[in-house]
Amino acid sequence: MFLRKPVTFLALVVIATALLLSTGCERTQIPPVNPTPEVSIPTAIASTATATQEPTLTSIPAAALVNGEPIPLSYFNNEVWRYRDSLADKAVKPGDVEISQTVINYLIEQQLLAQEAHKNGYALSEADLQAKIDGLIAGLGSQQAFEDWLTNNHYDDAEFRMALTLASEAAWQRDQISATIPDAVEQVRAQQIFALTPEGAQRALTSLASGTDFGALAWEYSPESGGELGWFPRGYLLYPEVEAAAFSLEVGARSEIIQSEIGYHIIEVQAHESAHPLTTDARIALQTKALQDWLSAAIANSQIVIQIP
Q1: Helix, strand, or coil here: 64?
Q2: Region 147-171: what's the mean pLDDT?
Q3: Domain boundaries defined on the chain
Q4: Is the pLDDT of residue 53 over 50?
């Protein structure tokens, strides 16, 4: 039974990169938001109890205000169109309300990341912005091809410049958050016996008590993997009760029956190191969690006013 969290990139923080850095002339395909149910993405909220100041008034219609800064209503509406375009080939499409919520949440999170980048001293300069645009034009082959791409993707020049600036600044801040994850962290290596029923788990426990080898029994119960969980850090396994047991056991010790939402587990700890190098997928999982935690905290401590129905 596969217990590790899947390797995934947060769609809410890569939509802009995929959208704005495409070099094709056709409509950009935006990755679906939250493609895997195991990864919980923080949801933006309409307001918070911690902020008391009034939002800064703006002269342009705004879909939302994030710490007083507007998300232009036109930008939101066009982003909805871009997201709809990306769903054209999908057999099952989300409804209008879900699409609007997905887009406004993404734009709020993008704004929060860009604001933090500014606080940390980073802002995309006009020269760097123009260099990025020149690179896109070169990749497309001509100024006219670029203008056609803008039209096909519901952009005008001003909005594209704004969107590319926000995407670049949010990406910079995301990289700063990802960089907080070290190369090596505390990890456990474990193997499990997995059963779908309590009776099956009890039979395994009885067999172990009679002297059956744990590894041999693990292969019997999980012939596709032998119950190997490999090395994993805290916050990586899908089922926290299994992970908690693994980190609480001594090397060589095994657990009692652990019930999770998918079945029953008996685990044996094979090794435990205070600093073991992260695999690529474990690093991505921890970086994803760090970003989720950062966004949750930023949302909780910001003044966010959503002004669309």
Answers
A1: strand
A2: 97
A3: 11-180+287-306, 184-277
A4: no
Name the average pLDDT for the chain: 86
Separation of alpha carbons 200 and 186, rounded Å = 32
The CA–CA distances, whole Å, from 206 to 225, 266, 286 equal 22, 12, 37
pLDDT of residue 3: 63
Is residue 15 within 8 A of residue 31, CB to CB? The reply is yes
Rounded to a whole number of angstroms, the distance between the first and last alpha carbons of the chain is 44
Q: Does residue 231 sit in helix, strand or coil? A: strand
Please state, as a whole number, how many other Cβ atoms lie within 10 Å of the Cβ of residue 227.
25
Is residue 278 within 8 A of residue 233, CB to CB? The reply is yes
- Tokens at 20, concatenated: 């704005």
| Domain 11-180+287-306 bears CATH identifier 3.90.1010.20 | no
> In this model, does residue 141 exceed pLDDT 90?
yes
With both helix axes pointing from N to C terminus, report the angle between 157-178 and 126-140 in degrees, rounded to the nearest 10: 110
CA distance 277 to 44: 34
Within a 13 Å sphere around the CA of 227, how many CA atoms are in the beta-carbon half? 23
Residue 164 and residue 205: Cα distance in Å, rounded? 58
The reply to whether the predicted model has a pTM over 0.85 is no
- Structure confidence by residue, pLDDT tens digits, 36-51: 333 333 344 444 433 3
Residue that the structure tokens 């594209």 belong to: 160
d(CA 260, CA 270): 21
May I ask the CATH class of domain 184-277? alpha beta
Q: Are 299 and 66 in contact (CB under 8 A)?
A: no
